Amino acid sequence: MNAVLELDTVTRIHGSGATEVTALRAVSFTAYAGELVAVMGPSGSGKSTLLTLAGGLDSPTSGAVRVEGTDLAALGQKGRAAMRRTSIGYVFQDFNLIPALTAVENVALPRELDGAGARSARKVAQAALDEVGIGELARRFPDEMSGGQQQRVAIARAIVGERRLILADEPTGALDSETGEDILRLIRARCDAGAAGVLVTHEARHAAWADRVVFLRDGVIVDESGNDRPDALLESAR
Amino acid sequence: MSVRNALLALLEQGPRYGYQLRAEFEDRTGGTWPLNVGQVYTTLARLERDGFVEVRGEDGDGHVVYTVTSRGREEVAAWFSSPVARTQPPREELAIKLALAVSVPGVDVGTVIQQQRSATMAALQDYTRLKRRATGDDPHELAWGLVLDSLVFNAEAEIRWLDHCEARLRRVAQDRDDGGPSSVEPGSSVEPFETPRPSAPQEPLAETMNEGGAR
Ligand SMILES: Nc1ncnc2c1ncn2[C@@H]1O[C@H](COP(=O)(O)OP(=O)(O)O)[C@@H](O)[C@H]1O
Ligand SMILES: [Mg+2]
Fold it and tell me: Do A222 and B189 touch (CB under 8 A)?
């Protein structure tokens, strides 16, 4: 299997002295192509920290984060930004769309920033909107759409242009359960098509869409559940 | 009892013999509760004794064919129009196990909780995989889909309850620490419960949080 995301003994300490908080402690974690991994844990256990490190939005205090074999630290600020525009898709709980841009413009923006022509960027963006089932809403502004529709736009933005790594932090948090399920179906479909996905959620029902569920406590992975784990397969073969 | 009522409801749709009833029951519930044919025939015999069904004769292949009586129809109607009795609280064994885990000395409650959570999560993943496949909307697929949803909701409720138990136990353990910085090894799933704390007061709960260190 192809490792898309690797966290190698990653520690992240916020602040220093009396206010020092260790958000992640020597965490090693891999997400493979075609796999959706869910991360569960109580509030403050380090889920968002793990995801922002994976997405190159934050840097580890020690240890390495590799995306498709490339160490994010070695890329530098600019390189990481480019990586985020082309290889890594990020979905946030609050959608994070730009209010002044239409749906298709929001989805096209990363590619345009990356130097693609406006026409070709729009074309690819429209295809992504079609894929998430809201092609006909392309010209709407975020405030003209429901929460579920806005999250679909955010997903389109995260998968546009065949991104290989999809990171989602509580993407269903603000949605009702039916709509949340639709969102998971979309992320799942992208992973089935070959991307690696990491989904942070506190809802067991949503985590159950993943191939593996990783449990975080106080910045440490304490357990994993999933039927496709190699060691579980070995045990059942005995 | 539910199998009895389910068979009666199936018979209301027309005469059937035992194997047919079993197949239809399993089809609608996705084989979640397998029936053996002996169980089906004993149930039919009891329904016949009580006057809810009668034998209509044999079909060409020698199967004994049953049909519902008017009393049987009333019974089905009464079943659908009344709630299922909540005789036993669900998850009884797990609740009992945890109740004992927190009150019997020397049990690592954190591990009991995490093991169960992991196992229930694996089951939830299985149900979800099945659900992803069952997307048709003909009535039988729909029936099976709803049975799956029931399993999903139950597993989810169990995990939420386990999370709640863990959070409560942690809070109790933290209060014991007077809210001071934790001196225990962070990150272990069982950290507040299993760390020996020789100075902890000999109260029932504190005692159960130790691995016997207080005694
Ligand atoms: N920028 C920051 N500065 C200081 N502490 C932080 C910062 N971000 C997160 N933390 C702390 O790190 C820990 C993990 O936070 P986070 O990763 O957001 O957890 P989760 O997403 O699981 O709720 C928490 O104790 C949090 O308070
Ligand atoms: Mg968070």
Answer: yes
As a whole number, the mean pLDDT across chain A is: 89
Q: Report the side by side order of strands in the sheet with B53-58.
A: B16-17, B64-68, B53-58
pLDDT tens-digit series, residues A174-213 = 778 778 888 899 899 999 999 999 999 988 999 999 999 9
CB atoms within 10 A of CB A54: 27
DSSP string, A186-203: HHHHHHHTT-EEEEE-S-
Q: Which of B50, B59, B88, B101 is nearest to B207 (CA)?
A: B101
Residue of A142, A188, A146 lying closest to A168 (CA atoms): A188
Mutate to test the pocket of ligand 1, among A21, A169, A203 (most ligand atoms within 8 A of CB): A21
Rounded to the nearest angstrom, the distance between the alpha carbon of A49 and the centre of ligand 1 is 6
CB-based contact B152 A208, cutoff 8 Å: yes
Determine the pLDDT at residue B195.
37
Closest residue, chain A, to B131 (C-alpha): A209
Question: Do residues A10 and A24 lie in contact, with contact meaning Cβ atoms separated by under 8 Å?
Answer: yes
Q: What is the ipTM of this complex?
A: 0.79
Distance CA A146, CA A148 (A): 5
**Which of A47, A211, A218 would you mutate first to test chain B, the one with the most B CBs within 10 A?**
A218
- Residue to substitute in A19, A22, A49, A92 for testing ligand 1 pocket (most ligand atoms within 8 angstroms of CB): A49
Position B120 confidence tier, pLDDT thresholds 50, 70, 90:
very high
Question: What is the rounded distance in angstroms from the CA atom of residue B48 to the CA atom of residue B55?
Answer: 8
Name the H helices within A17-146: 47-54, 72-86, 103-113, 118-131
Q: What pLDDT is recorded for position B207? A: 34
Query: Whose alpha carbon is nearest atom 3 of ligand 1?
Result: A14
Residues A187 and A155 sit within 8 Å (Cβ to Cβ) = yes
pTM, two decimals, is 0.76
pLDDT of residue A237: 40
Mean pLDDT, range A122-133, rounded to an integer? 92
Compute CA A139 distance to the chain's CA centroid, rounded to the nearest angstrom: 25
What is the phi-psi region of residue B122: left when phi exceeds 0, alpha when psi lies from -120 to 50, beta otherwise?
Answer: alpha
